[in-house]
């Protein structure tokens, strides 16, 4: 049996839906992984990459971030002491980006390239055609572009796909971008030691002038239209009418200035505008979650909400939109509360109910789910298994 036949035989042994941990793992040699990220913004996807890199290094592997210069993820990686290589990801097939990635990968004997966004996926496709092993990681739950160029990039540009939720896997397969048995679902993991109920958020309340006995509803995520922050803003007056001591915090930066302008305009139109605080991007979000009574997720599309998982781990109430991969973890009235996406009135009703009743059993259920299923170590072991599977070892 030649190498290609062996590789595809290995794939056939992993049927759709099986855990990536069932991949044959004949080699425990340290790996050399290059993460490609062309994003100009920073949010859950980018922070997950940095956390993965930290884990890889701490477990004896070599890893690098190949990112567009002068971007927030590059700056965040520098602050964490992670190895960063500047790559000019301009357009889908920029010659300098292709040359730089190929040269770096060969010089540093990279085993696997893990591509995370569309611009870098085009470069990764060329790397694959040149004989390198490529993983495509899909973090976002929106409909994927599937014109001829993008479909070609998907079909020819990787050996395997990592999806962060079952809903993303279904989307990828439905659009004909990959076969079911080449897509592995590996949800985000969280560091339970970092996102712990023991974290103190008193200094956050003090800094932003929130009374210790006030009820704080927090929304964490990039400010953009599909994240739906406006729906929480439109619910504010309704919530305060029922819960007079409610305060609201929106944590995250805008991907485009006009999105922030639109959100500020929404806030200016409500009666209780002074109760809504925009904090901008915050790296240590665990302190903001610790300060909160309830975590709200208002997305119109979502793979699997990292903020919900973090809220579970820190024993906070979670109210989330019933969309994408969110219902995979937020089970209505069992681990949290769901409402129809885009419906501010229903969102307000769920928040009022959750803050007006004893929901401690639901919070405990969510915490136990986090302990059982959200381990960062388990996520990374599954990821390593897929990397090795792509390598054919």
Descriptive account of the structure:
- It is a single chain.
- With 393 residues, the chain is an alpha/beta fold.
- It folds into two domains: 3-189 and 375-391, 3-Layer(aba) Sandwich (Rossmann fold); 202-373, Glycogen Phosphorylase B (Rossmann fold, 3-Layer(aba) Sandwich), CATH 3.40.50.2000.
- It has 15 helices and 13 strands.
- It has helices at 3-12, 44-58, 72-79, 95-107, 118-129, 148-156, 166-174, 202-208, 229-242, 257-268, 285-290, 306-313, 344-356, 360-373, 376-391, and strands at 32-37, 62-67, 84-86, 112-115, 133-138, 160-163, 183-185, 215-220, 246-251, 276-280, 294-297, 317-321, 337-339.
- α5 links the parallel β4 and β5.
- α4 (95-107) crosses α5 (118-129) and α9 packs across α13.
- The radius of gyration is 21 Å and the shape is globular.
